[in-house]
Structures are given as C-alpha cells and as structure tokens.
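User: As part of a screening pipeline, I want to sanity-check one entry by hand. Below is the sequence and the SMILES for zinc ion. Please return the complex as structure tokens so I can compare it with the automated output.
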Amino acid sequence: MLSRIDTKTTYLGSMRPQDLLVPTAAGLCCPIAGFHIDPVRGVDRALITHGHSDHARPGHRAVLATRETLDFMRLRYGEDFAGATQEVRYGETVRLGRVSVTFRPAGHVLGSAQIAVAANGLRIVASGDYKDVADPTCAPFEPVPCDVFITEATFGLPVFRHGRPQDEIAKLLQSVRLFPERAHLLGAYSLGKAQRVLAMIRAAGYDRPIYLHGAMETLTRYYVARGIDLGDLRPVRGAPKAELAGAIALCPPSALKDVWTRRFPDPVTAFASGWMRVRARARQRGVELPLVISDHADWDGLTATVAATGAGEVWVTHGAEEALVHWSVANGRAARPLGLVGYGEEDDAQGEAGGAEA
Amino acid sequence: MNRFAALLDRLAYEPSRNAKLRLMTAYFAATPDPERGYALAALTGALSFQHAKPGLIRTLVMERTDPVLFALSYDYVGDLSETVALMWPGPRDAAPQPAPRLSEVVGALASLGKAELPRRLAQWLDGLDETGRWALLKLVTGALRIGVSARLAKTAVAALGATEPDEVELVWPGLAPPYEDLFAWVEGRGERPASRDAAPFRPVMLAHAVEAEELARLDPSAFLAEWKWDGIRVQAVAGTRADGRRVARLYSRTGEDISGSFPDLADALRFDGAIDGELLVVRAGRVQSFNVLQQRLNRKSVTAKLLAEHPAHLRAYDLLVEGTEDLRARPFTARRARLEALVARLAEPRVDVSRLVPFATWEELAAARADPEAAGAGVDAEAVEGVMLKGRETPYLPGRPKGPWWKWKRDPFVVDAVLMYAQRGSGKRSSFYSDYTFGVWTEGPNGDELVPVGKAYFGFTDAELAEIDRFVRRNTVNRFGPVREVVHEAEKGLVLEVAFEGLQRSTRHKSGIAMRFPRISRLRWDKPPAQADRLEALERLLRPDTESVSVRPRRRDRAVP
Ligand SMILES: [Zn+2]
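Assistant: Here is the complex for your manual check:
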C-alpha cells in the first residue's frame, strides 16, 4: 500500500515498480528475470549485497555478488556454499533476461554493494545495508539516482546520530591510558566492524599489539590479505594474563559476557555499535565503555541519502520503518514499509537485545 | 562543558568505586579552574538554582521537531532528557554556536530570570554534542544521578595531592564553588583554607567488628559497653556565627549535611559543640525499628504530618567538642562525663544519652547482647543491633583504628532458602552468575511452591562464587536475557543459608516481605530443597507479639568462650 500516490513519476512502457521487484517470503524477488536479492532461503538465483549472514545465506543454486562477498561466504560456509557463482565488479552491468543489474559500493563492509535493477527505463536501487561515512576498510558509498530507493532503517529514528567515530576511538585510547593495568575488551561484530575499528585505532597512532578472539582471526586475516594494514595483531589464545594488562583485545559481542573474559586482568568492557547511543541499551548489556561506531547510516545519513537518490518512491525495510516512512511522506515522497522478515537478526549476539551487526 | 559531560557519561556506566575515583581525579588534574570547581560543586550537590521543569524542555523540542518523530523517539528511548539530547536538531541557518563552559552555565542558571531561561537553554543545546546536551539537561532538571557520593568526589580531589579525604572534609564547610583555594591547597600551591564554619563536621571514629573468640583475648575491665542502636549514625553540631546567628547541623557519618530532612531535631540542638550519636525515631518514649525510620527517610518532602508521626531523636554516644574546647584527645570516660552533663543541662526530650551496659566478664556481656530487653534496653530492645565496646582511656580518633573500639553485633537471622534465579553481575563479575534470587516454601493452589523472598549478591567467597556459577550453568531450566532460572524442585536444587538483619512488609514483592541486608552465609549442598524454610517462619518475625520461638527464624548462635 502506498502512503501517497505520486503523480510525478511516469513509468515507461507501463512497467510498474511492483512488476520489477516484489517482496516475497524468500526475500525481494524479480519475477520477470527470476532472481532474488539477499534471499533468506535457498533459491535458484541469488544476488547478494554483502557478506553478513542475515543477507548472505548458503544453499542457493547460483549466486551473483562481488568477489569479497563470495569470499566471505566461502570462508563462512565452505567451498560448496552455492551451486555456481559469478563475480561482479562495482559499476559493471550484468544482463539477466529483460533486466539489467549494476552493483555500486554501499560503504557498509568490504565488498558491500547496492544493487540497481533496471528495465524499460525504470530503475530500483536495493541498497542492502549502507553507511554514508568514511571507512578505511571499504569503498565509499555512492548515491545512485533511481525511481524507487529501497532503504534499510536499522537506525531509522532521529535519536540515532552516530557522531564522529574518531572521537569514540579517542575515548577508548584515553581509557587505556588511564587504566594501564586493566585489559580493554572491545566487542565488535567480526565482519567489518572489527576491522574498521582496528584500522581506526591504528590511524589514531596506537601501534602496540592488539589481541584477537579466535572467532575474528580468519576474517581479519582476509582483510589484511586484501591489502588493508591493521598493524601487529596477535591471538588472545595462549597469551599470558600479565601480557594482557593494558592491552586492547577485540572479540565478538557475545564473548563479552563469556567465561572467556576471565583470562583478562580486571577487564573494561567496551562495545562498538550504533545501539550504544541509547543509554538503556548499553546498560542492559552491562557495557562500561560504550562506543558509538556504526556500519549503518544514522538518521541524518538515511534522510540525506533518500534525498540524494532523487527517488520519488521509498521502500523501507528492516528496522524502524515507521519513522522513515513518515519522514519520506512528509518530504513529498511516496513511501511504504516492505515487511521483509529475516534481516537485522544478528548471528553472534545470542539473542541479547540490540543487533550485534550495527 | 563537553569535558564535564564526558566525565559524567563515563561515571554513569562505571560500576567500580576505585575506577570512578580515578576518572574524577584525572578530570580534576586535567581541567583548569574554575571549570573543575563547578564540576566538583555539581558532583557534591553544592549547586543551588531553580531547576527547569520537564515541560519546558518538552516545549523547546516540540518547537523544533516533527511531533510524530518525537513521539516515536521518546517511546523508544524512554527518558525525556535523553530523547531531547539525542534528537535536538541543532541550529538552523545559523553559524554553529560555541560550546558553553560549565562555569557560564552555572553562573547563568543562578542569575537568569524564568522568562530568559528557554532561549538561553536552546542556545547552549545548539552548541553541544549529544553527550553534552544530555549532561546539560540532567543538570538543569536536577536529575544528575550518576552514582557518585559527595564523599567520593572529595576523595578524588584529595588524591590530587597527598591529602587525606578527612582533611578535605574538615575544611569543606568553609568553602564555596569554584573551590580554587581548595585545589591550590591540595596541589601544594596554597595555604590550608581556614574553616570559618560555626558548625563544622569532624571525621567520625568507627569500630571494627569483633567475634567472641577475639574478645577472649581482651581485658573486660579496660572497656565500657553501650548499646549499638539500629538507626543512622550522625554528628550533631551547633554553634554561633561571628554575626551572632545560630547554626545547627546534622551530618551523616560521611559528612553529608542531612539537616534539611530533620528540621525537628536540628531545632533542638541548643548547645555549642559536636555530639556523636544515633538518629532514631522515638514515639511515646519507645525507639522504633529501622523500618519506621526508613519511612521517614524515603519521603521527599518533610511534612507536618511526617514530623508528628515520625519524630526524630538523638541518642548521644560521645562529645567531641564543647564550646571552643576540643575534647577528642581526652579519654572516653572524661568525654562521656562531659556529655552527660551537657545533655542534662540541655533538658531536651529529643536528646538523651545512650545508656551503658553493665558487665564484668565477657560472659555477662554476651548474655546482655543475647537478651537486651532483660539487660536494660527494655521496650527498645528490638532496635538494638548489638553492643559497642569502647576503651575507657582511648581518645576519639578519625577513621577505623584497630583496638580502641569494637562492635559486637547481634547474630543475624538466618533462613534456608532455595536458589530460583541467577543473574550475571557487572564489572569484574560480568562473566559470573553472581546475583541470586532465592525463595522459601509456601502453600499454593497446587500444593507447596517456592515464593521469592529476596536477592543477594555477596557473602560468599570467590571459590563459592565459582561453584554456584557452575551449578547455575549446569542446571538452567529457562533463560530471560541476562537471567537464568535454575532448577528448584523438592529434591533438585541448591539450598542457600541466607543471613539478614531484619524484615519489613513490602507490596512490591509477591511474598509481601523484604529483607534487610541479605547475604549468602553458607551453601547447603547437603540439604535437599524440600527441607528449606517456609514463608510462615518469616512472617512470624514481622509480628513479634505473636512470638512462638519454634517457628521464628533463628538467630544464628555462636558459642561464647
Ligand atoms: Zn550488514
């Protein structure tokens, strides 16, 4: 249901947006070319925006994605994660029947893409997850002009404003200086957030070894192999307790409350996530040093991006859809919530409140 | 203001006292005057200005935001100040405002008229980031609750140099924000500020706990004993200012001025000196239980009805100063004689001297402690927490010196309860299930069931914590976020011996009771849950008149040497 009928948009060749992409139980589907975008169950042909497990699932017959996204799926699910794979570069257009698809950088994690789907002069951009701020570990987000923009709304409320991530890193390093006898345990999602935080800590001039939880080693090694310098990294495993005093260690958010933390001397619990902006959320997780660092656009980023695409129509998915739909309509666009399910469900927070991948 | 905000932000999340102290000391060391002084004033509650009403803040934000978006946001965040701090849109079509300094904010709040406040507040909000706006709004609405006591903030200042916190406490009453003379003194750049206060606080002397075994090594004739009353330890100080005006104050044992909550008692302090004593509620000549005192403490405003129904009383233990004469170096017997004379002259029904407990041997004192009613406490026996032993010849020393004073508390009540839920701790304990909800048996619609009666998170050793943690992880039957429900059936579960100081009625708990100071005193791995205590035993404690010793929770007894 459209909240408002938009008369400015004319669809050539009588193609309507819902003929090109339609939400189904398996995910967003293109019926005329027979593919799904980020399907949540096995399909014949899947186009994958990025490597996070709620978007990139195993068991499809054919997968089209960027090289890095395919590599992440391979690392996570093994070589036979899909029947066939096809690699696509940013800016490259692939024809699928009557429909052409183009992948553009989404600025979310390494290899993340927005997918522009076009036919008969109508263009819809499915942006997957995205952020419009600098990230030293991935290609910067590019707004793509389109008729219909499909946006995530993980942080789709005006209270989510992420601020300057450098300030958050400074907060961490200041705490490390103030408590040199304690370990600083930093929870961060193991794909993307961890490596971005590592790169930012290095950019802030911190050059001592940083310790990694076992669950982050493979993905981080992959980033390094792709030419992203993250400095001296060491496994937590086997490090004597005394060596961890005054050190920074990264782990998946779920490990912050694990018996695993007992190997650290008097740890300070830090967590890098956009959810840390809301105090009740941070307290609920028992975080002592919340760092507001997000790989999703904040409210200002979402609204600026919607405006920059020039789209007359906005489809809103996973997150706080209601507020962003309201804003879009108030700002002269047709808008509706998509009602897709299965996204934004973190795969390593073990059901605790607040998305880990944020 | 942004730096102060960052400190508050960090303090609000930090559970450890020691870490809070270091955060504050680092802030005071890095922040120039007068900013740090106003921060100290804010942390110690020494700022006074008319607080902004939440309505004003709501109006400000409604003028600048979409009402639907505000409603959705407020609903999500749940706290007005925080919602406004986060979604404040910033200046439109204007150059960015400079961030206000804390000194500027404090100065303006004290002098601004009501009509000017909204515009100025909006200007400040425009100049601050999310954390700065949050701190500002908490400050102006008087809702700065970050888990730091005035004492802790002063201790952090003392740590800037090699000053004892008690020394800071001594000069504090003569000081005013922004405390530049205080900082200069602790940093070794200036003279010790003179105490100009007519009723200053003196650091309190505290006692170590003692057990019967240790007492056996002490000489009973060297000590006097008095009842230890279950109220609030206070220092009542009164004097005359240079201009002839009377000043009377009640301080808590950490030096916080609590006179405002007890005007009835403050008015009765018609003497010049400093008395160490216990604040109690006395009705018709009878000392009320701590529960009754607590009802008075919990009220925000002191109404005439409250004053009439919960009259405050001072039971005096010691005299530190009389007139201009400092008695603290004198022996306890001499101070006590002066105290008795002063209280007799005062002839004020709200003030009396705590009576001595006569004894010649430790056995006699043990008997008095076990039955205060028969040993002279009479109808006030329920409010006796134990006995205090004070060396006859000892001076009054600040802090907790070992030797001159001992407190010998009555044995706590104990019940055997069954562990029902366990929750993760925080800070160092965040990987342990260290907060326990326990229950006792009661008759339910389907036979006996366990009803929760309290929570405890200390009393056990580190080794016992690890054992309970292991038990919780292996016997979880349900999870609710950070809480685990553990098995608690007649034959399966963990029995905890819980010690506590008393009970009160509570409508917040399903069981109808709340425990005072519960802690785990023993793990009863040997006991099946079916043999844990019943709710009736606890209820009996709430109605001491219907005493029936067999089902009352017992006081744990220890052998007397
Ligand atoms: Zn993602």
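Points to compare against the pipeline: Chain A has two domains: 17-159+295-350, 165-291. The two ends of chain A are 29 Å apart (CA to CA).
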